[in-house]
Amino acid sequence: MTLLEARGLTRHFGGLKAVDGVDFDLAEGEVHALIGPNGAGKTTFVSLLCGRIPVQSGVIRFDGADITRLPAHSRVRRGIAYTFQITQVFANLTVFDNVALAVQRRGGPLDGDTRAALARVGLADRADQRAGTLSYGHQRLLEIAMGLALHPRLLILDEPTQGLANAEIDTFKALVRQIVSDTTVLLIEHNMDVVMDLAHRITVLNFGEVLSSGTPDAIRANPAVQAAYLGG
Ligand SMILES: Nc1ncnc2c1ncn2[C@@H]1O[C@H](COP(=O)(O)OP(=O)(O)OP(=O)(O)O)[C@@H](O)[C@H]1O
Where is the ABC transporter domain (predicted)? Predict the structure, then answer.
């Protein structure tokens, strides 16, 4: 089943075509990776999907409903959660309270849901620590816990492995495999090992347009993708 579809999605900044007529389909239950060179429009594209920036033209449908003009908080309520490159944790609050804020937004049982989300990402034993004192890798995991606490149907992760050590990347990969049992995942990622390991399908953006979309094997073998991005 298609969970999310975009048709003709467009966002220009002055003369710069950051996202230009993108058609995109996300199947329920998949890990879908969005890749492409720096400046290709990946962050702008997912910002349009979650309502952080307004669409200029085109349509976004989520679970069959037109969400193109809905404000971001309404999209969260419908099940779209996201974590962005810039770390979003509140440094002076405890790990527990950061996640509790997200649970509160959704209106679930505060203590139980908060602890469950922390357990999923492996941070249960750090609940009382101030978030700002966590390592960078653990702060990234905390952001994911904040997303999961919303019980999303779609979790969008923007460069989640950036700045992580190899061991932390392995933890992250295991986490995504577990998350995808009940949540669709859209992943912006530059680390091709992570992409090829996790993604069921990949969409390649280049200069704001879809260069190609397909399975990891098809993308790897595509000469245009190799030329634009994979350096083959
Ligand atoms: N608010 C903005 N105002 C003007 N230009 C912008 C704005 N946001 C993004 N851009 C430009 O739009 C283009 C696409 O940027 P975007 O961040 O979406 O690319 P990206 O594929 O996510 O890149 P990266 O991999 O480096 O994160 C870039 O040229 C960027 O400079």
Answer: 4-232
For 166, other C-beta atoms within 10 Å of its C-beta total 9
Ligand 1 atom closest to Cα of residue 85: 27
ipTM for the complex shown = 0.96
At CA 32, angle to CA 161 and CA 38, rounded to 5? 55
Closest CA to ligand 1's atom 4? 13
Instruction: Tell me the Cα Rg of the chain.
Output: 17
The closest residue, in CA terms, to atom 30 on ligand 1 is 39
Q: How far apart are CA 232 and CA 229, in angstroms?
A: 8
Tens-digit pLDDT profile for residues 68-103: 999 998 999 899 999 865 567 899 999 999 999 989
Between the CA of 41 and the centroid of ligand 1 the distance, in Å, is 6
The confidence score (pLDDT) of residue 17 equals 97
Torsion of CA 107, 113, 114, 117, to 10 degrees: -120
The structural domains of the chain, ordered by start, are 1-69+168-232 (3.40.50.300), 80-151 (no CATH)
Give pTM, 2 decimals. Answer: 0.94
Tell me how far the alpha carbon of residue 189 is from its chain's centroid.
Answer: 9
**Is residue 38 within 6 Å of ligand 1 at its C-beta?**
yes
Q: How far apart are CA 204 and CA 147, in angstroms?
A: 25
For range 206-218, the mean pLDDT? 96
